[in-house]
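Hello Y.,

Per our agreement to keep a running log of every chain we model this quarter, I'm adding this entry. I've kept the format consistent with earlier entries: sequence first, then predicted structure.
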Amino acid sequence: MATGPIRRPSYLDGVREAFLERVNLAVLTATAVPLLVGHPPAFYGVLAAGVVGLEACWLLWAPFVPAFQRRLIGRLIARNQAEKERERKRLGATLTPELGSRYQEVRRLYDDIRQGARDSGTVAQELLAEELDKLDALLDAFLRLLCTWLRYRRYLNRTDENAIVKDLAHLRGKIERTTDPDTQRIIRQNLEILEKRLERIEAIQKGYLNLQAQLEVIEDTFQLINDQMVSLRTPDALGVDLNQIVSGVEMTEAVLQETNALIAVPERSLA
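Predicted structure for the entry above:
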Protein backbone atom coordinates (compact mmCIF):
# COMPACT_ATOMS: atom_id res chain seq x y z
CA MET A 1 0.00 0.00 0.00
CA ALA A 2 0.95 3.52 -0.36
CA THR A 3 0.96 4.14 3.35
CA GLY A 4 3.95 3.27 5.51
CA PRO A 5 5.39 3.78 8.97
CA ILE A 6 4.78 7.13 10.67
CA ARG A 7 7.79 9.39 10.10
CA ARG A 8 8.96 11.83 12.75
CA PRO A 9 7.28 15.21 12.13
CA SER A 10 9.58 17.86 10.69
CA TYR A 11 9.74 21.47 11.80
CA LEU A 12 7.76 22.48 8.71
CA ASP A 13 5.08 19.94 9.67
CA GLY A 14 4.85 21.70 13.03
CA VAL A 15 4.63 25.15 11.43
CA ARG A 16 1.89 24.01 9.08
CA GLU A 17 -0.15 22.40 11.84
CA ALA A 18 0.34 25.41 14.11
CA PHE A 19 -0.97 27.67 11.37
CA LEU A 20 -3.99 25.40 10.83
CA GLU A 21 -4.95 25.36 14.52
CA ARG A 22 -8.60 26.43 14.83
CA VAL A 23 -7.93 29.18 17.33
CA ASN A 24 -5.11 30.54 15.19
CA LEU A 25 -7.27 30.60 12.04
CA ALA A 26 -10.12 32.21 13.99
CA VAL A 27 -7.84 35.03 15.21
CA LEU A 28 -6.42 35.61 11.71
CA THR A 29 -9.91 35.64 10.19
CA ALA A 30 -11.23 38.07 12.80
CA THR A 31 -8.24 40.34 12.15
CA ALA A 32 -8.74 40.27 8.38
CA VAL A 33 -12.51 40.91 8.37
CA PRO A 34 -12.35 44.72 8.92
CA LEU A 35 -9.87 45.07 6.08
CA LEU A 36 -11.94 42.89 3.76
CA VAL A 37 -15.18 44.81 4.39
CA GLY A 38 -13.37 48.06 3.76
CA HIS A 39 -13.99 49.76 7.12
CA PRO A 40 -10.98 49.15 9.35
CA PRO A 41 -10.93 51.16 12.63
CA ALA A 42 -8.33 53.84 13.24
CA PHE A 43 -6.23 51.59 15.43
CA TYR A 44 -6.36 48.74 12.90
CA GLY A 45 -2.74 49.18 11.80
CA VAL A 46 -1.46 48.73 15.34
CA LEU A 47 -3.79 45.78 15.92
CA ALA A 48 -2.77 44.06 12.68
CA ALA A 49 0.92 44.57 13.42
CA GLY A 50 0.43 43.07 16.87
CA VAL A 51 -1.41 40.04 15.45
CA VAL A 52 1.31 39.51 12.82
CA GLY A 53 3.97 39.64 15.52
CA LEU A 54 2.10 37.20 17.72
CA GLU A 55 1.53 34.92 14.72
CA ALA A 56 5.24 34.86 13.94
CA CYS A 57 6.05 34.02 17.57
CA TRP A 58 3.40 31.29 17.61
CA LEU A 59 4.66 29.66 14.42
CA LEU A 60 8.28 29.78 15.59
CA TRP A 61 7.57 28.55 19.12
CA ALA A 62 4.71 26.03 18.82
CA PRO A 63 6.62 23.26 16.96
CA PHE A 64 9.03 22.97 19.91
CA VAL A 65 6.35 22.61 22.60
CA PRO A 66 6.19 18.93 23.77
CA ALA A 67 2.40 18.97 24.19
CA PHE A 68 1.97 20.33 20.65
CA GLN A 69 4.43 17.74 19.29
CA ARG A 70 2.45 14.91 20.89
CA ARG A 71 -0.76 16.29 19.41
CA LEU A 72 0.90 16.60 16.01
CA ILE A 73 2.14 12.98 16.10
CA GLY A 74 -1.37 11.89 17.08
CA ARG A 75 -2.82 13.71 14.07
CA LEU A 76 -0.28 12.18 11.69
CA ILE A 77 -1.02 8.71 13.05
CA ALA A 78 -4.76 9.29 12.63
CA ARG A 79 -4.32 10.51 9.06
CA ASN A 80 -2.03 7.59 8.21
CA GLN A 81 -4.55 5.12 9.64
CA ALA A 82 -7.43 6.78 7.78
CA GLU A 83 -5.45 6.52 4.53
CA LYS A 84 -4.75 2.84 5.24
CA GLU A 85 -8.42 2.16 5.87
CA ARG A 86 -9.42 3.88 2.62
CA GLU A 87 -6.90 1.75 0.71
CA ARG A 88 -8.09 -1.41 2.48
CA LYS A 89 -11.67 -0.56 1.59
CA ARG A 90 -10.72 0.07 -2.05
CA LEU A 91 -8.85 -3.22 -2.40
CA GLY A 92 -11.49 -5.14 -0.44
CA ALA A 93 -14.16 -3.98 -2.90
CA THR A 94 -12.30 -5.78 -5.72
CA LEU A 95 -12.47 -9.18 -4.03
CA THR A 96 -15.06 -11.88 -4.64
CA PRO A 97 -17.45 -12.63 -1.73
CA GLU A 98 -15.42 -15.79 -0.97
CA LEU A 99 -12.09 -13.94 -0.74
CA GLY A 100 -13.76 -11.01 0.99
CA SER A 101 -14.85 -13.42 3.74
CA ARG A 102 -11.28 -14.70 4.09
CA TYR A 103 -10.02 -11.15 4.51
CA GLN A 104 -12.75 -10.25 7.00
CA GLU A 105 -11.88 -13.30 9.11
CA VAL A 106 -8.21 -12.28 9.28
CA ARG A 107 -9.30 -8.70 10.01
CA ARG A 108 -11.47 -9.99 12.86
CA LEU A 109 -8.50 -11.90 14.30
CA TYR A 110 -6.33 -8.77 13.93
CA ASP A 111 -8.89 -6.68 15.85
CA ASP A 112 -9.23 -9.37 18.54
CA ILE A 113 -5.45 -9.51 18.99
CA ARG A 114 -5.21 -5.75 19.40
CA GLN A 115 -8.11 -5.78 21.86
CA GLY A 116 -6.42 -8.61 23.76
CA ALA A 117 -3.23 -6.53 24.00
CA ARG A 118 -5.23 -3.60 25.37
CA ASP A 119 -6.97 -5.86 27.89
CA SER A 120 -3.57 -7.18 29.04
CA GLY A 121 -2.64 -3.77 30.43
CA THR A 122 -0.36 -0.90 29.51
CA VAL A 123 2.92 -2.72 30.18
CA ALA A 124 2.02 -5.70 27.99
CA GLN A 125 0.71 -3.39 25.28
CA GLU A 126 3.99 -1.43 25.23
CA LEU A 127 6.04 -4.65 25.11
CA LEU A 128 3.97 -5.92 22.19
CA ALA A 129 3.76 -2.60 20.30
CA GLU A 130 6.44 -3.54 17.75
CA GLU A 131 4.88 -6.97 17.14
CA LEU A 132 1.44 -5.40 16.69
CA ASP A 133 2.89 -3.06 14.06
CA LYS A 134 4.18 -6.13 12.21
CA LEU A 135 0.69 -7.63 12.32
CA ASP A 136 -0.62 -4.40 10.84
CA ALA A 137 1.81 -4.81 7.93
CA LEU A 138 0.85 -8.49 7.57
CA LEU A 139 -2.84 -7.59 7.37
CA ASP A 140 -2.14 -5.18 4.51
CA ALA A 141 0.09 -7.76 2.80
CA PHE A 142 -2.66 -10.38 3.14
CA LEU A 143 -5.11 -8.11 1.34
CA ARG A 144 -2.62 -7.32 -1.45
CA LEU A 145 -1.81 -11.01 -1.91
CA LEU A 146 -5.51 -11.90 -2.03
CA CYS A 147 -5.99 -9.38 -4.86
CA THR A 148 -2.99 -10.81 -6.74
CA TRP A 149 -4.16 -14.40 -6.15
CA LEU A 150 -7.57 -13.49 -7.61
CA ARG A 151 -5.95 -12.03 -10.74
CA TYR A 152 -3.89 -15.19 -11.19
CA ARG A 153 -6.92 -17.41 -10.73
CA ARG A 154 -8.95 -15.45 -13.29
CA TYR A 155 -6.10 -15.66 -15.78
CA LEU A 156 -5.72 -19.42 -15.32
CA ASN A 157 -9.49 -19.97 -15.54
CA ARG A 158 -9.69 -18.29 -18.93
CA THR A 159 -6.57 -20.03 -20.30
CA ASP A 160 -6.83 -23.59 -21.68
CA GLU A 161 -3.42 -25.17 -21.02
CA ASN A 162 -4.48 -28.53 -22.42
CA ALA A 163 -5.50 -26.94 -25.72
CA ILE A 164 -2.06 -25.35 -26.04
CA VAL A 165 -0.33 -28.67 -25.29
CA LYS A 166 -2.44 -30.38 -27.98
CA ASP A 167 -1.70 -27.60 -30.49
CA LEU A 168 2.03 -27.98 -29.79
CA ALA A 169 1.91 -31.74 -30.37
CA HIS A 170 -0.07 -31.21 -33.57
CA LEU A 171 2.38 -28.60 -34.94
CA ARG A 172 5.44 -30.71 -34.06
CA GLY A 173 3.98 -33.60 -36.00
CA LYS A 174 3.00 -31.30 -38.84
CA ILE A 175 6.47 -29.82 -39.21
CA GLU A 176 7.95 -33.32 -39.55
CA ARG A 177 5.58 -34.07 -42.41
CA THR A 178 6.14 -30.74 -44.19
CA THR A 179 8.89 -30.38 -46.76
CA ASP A 180 8.22 -26.80 -47.93
CA PRO A 181 10.78 -24.43 -46.22
CA ASP A 182 8.37 -21.46 -46.05
CA THR A 183 5.66 -23.56 -44.45
CA GLN A 184 8.18 -24.96 -41.97
CA ARG A 185 9.30 -21.43 -41.06
CA ILE A 186 5.71 -20.35 -40.35
CA ILE A 187 5.03 -23.46 -38.27
CA ARG A 188 8.21 -22.83 -36.23
CA GLN A 189 7.04 -19.28 -35.54
CA ASN A 190 3.72 -20.63 -34.32
CA LEU A 191 5.52 -23.22 -32.19
CA GLU A 192 7.61 -20.47 -30.62
CA ILE A 193 4.52 -18.47 -29.70
CA LEU A 194 2.75 -21.46 -28.19
CA GLU A 195 5.85 -22.45 -26.21
CA LYS A 196 6.06 -18.92 -24.79
CA ARG A 197 2.39 -19.07 -23.85
CA LEU A 198 2.95 -22.39 -22.11
CA GLU A 199 5.97 -21.00 -20.23
CA ARG A 200 3.86 -18.04 -19.13
CA ILE A 201 1.08 -20.30 -17.87
CA GLU A 202 3.54 -22.49 -15.94
CA ALA A 203 5.12 -19.42 -14.32
CA ILE A 204 1.71 -18.09 -13.31
CA GLN A 205 0.67 -21.51 -11.96
CA LYS A 206 3.81 -21.58 -9.83
CA GLY A 207 3.11 -18.06 -8.54
CA TYR A 208 -0.50 -19.03 -7.86
CA LEU A 209 0.57 -21.98 -5.69
CA ASN A 210 3.16 -19.85 -3.87
CA LEU A 211 0.52 -17.21 -3.19
CA GLN A 212 -1.89 -19.81 -1.87
CA ALA A 213 0.73 -21.18 0.52
CA GLN A 214 1.71 -17.69 1.72
CA LEU A 215 -1.90 -16.72 2.34
CA GLU A 216 -2.38 -19.84 4.46
CA VAL A 217 0.77 -19.01 6.46
CA ILE A 218 -0.61 -15.55 7.26
CA GLU A 219 -4.03 -16.91 8.20
CA ASP A 220 -2.53 -19.55 10.48
CA THR A 221 -0.20 -16.94 12.04
CA PHE A 222 -3.10 -14.69 13.00
CA GLN A 223 -5.02 -17.67 14.36
CA LEU A 224 -2.06 -18.85 16.44
CA ILE A 225 -1.40 -15.41 17.93
CA ASN A 226 -5.07 -14.93 18.71
CA ASP A 227 -5.06 -18.28 20.55
CA GLN A 228 -2.00 -17.15 22.53
CA MET A 229 -3.47 -13.81 23.63
CA VAL A 230 -5.11 -15.28 26.73
CA SER A 231 -1.73 -15.79 28.43
CA LEU A 232 0.46 -13.50 26.33
CA ARG A 233 2.65 -11.06 28.23
CA THR A 234 5.87 -10.79 26.18
CA PRO A 235 6.75 -10.93 22.45
CA ASP A 236 8.63 -14.23 23.06
CA ALA A 237 5.35 -15.86 24.04
CA LEU A 238 3.82 -15.27 20.60
CA GLY A 239 4.95 -18.71 19.51
CA VAL A 240 5.96 -17.44 16.05
CA ASP A 241 8.76 -15.32 14.63
CA LEU A 242 6.94 -12.44 12.96
CA ASN A 243 10.17 -11.13 11.45
CA GLN A 244 10.53 -14.39 9.55
CA ILE A 245 6.89 -14.26 8.40
CA VAL A 246 7.19 -10.65 7.24
CA SER A 247 10.45 -11.45 5.42
CA GLY A 248 8.78 -14.40 3.71
CA VAL A 249 5.90 -12.22 2.55
CA GLU A 250 8.28 -9.55 1.25
CA MET A 251 10.26 -12.21 -0.63
CA THR A 252 7.07 -13.64 -2.14
CA GLU A 253 5.93 -10.20 -3.31
CA ALA A 254 9.36 -9.47 -4.80
CA VAL A 255 9.39 -12.78 -6.72
CA LEU A 256 5.84 -12.16 -7.95
CA GLN A 257 6.78 -8.83 -9.54
CA GLU A 258 8.10 -10.64 -12.60
CA THR A 259 5.07 -12.94 -12.75
CA ASN A 260 2.72 -9.96 -12.44
CA ALA A 261 4.36 -8.50 -15.54
CA LEU A 262 3.50 -11.69 -17.45
CA ILE A 263 -0.20 -11.16 -16.81
CA ALA A 264 0.03 -7.50 -17.76
CA VAL A 265 1.67 -8.22 -21.16
CA PRO A 266 -0.90 -8.91 -23.92
CA GLU A 267 -0.47 -12.32 -25.54
CA ARG A 268 -0.16 -10.78 -29.01
CA SER A 269 3.17 -9.28 -27.86
CA LEU A 270 4.57 -12.83 -27.70
CA ALA A 271 4.55 -13.03 -31.46
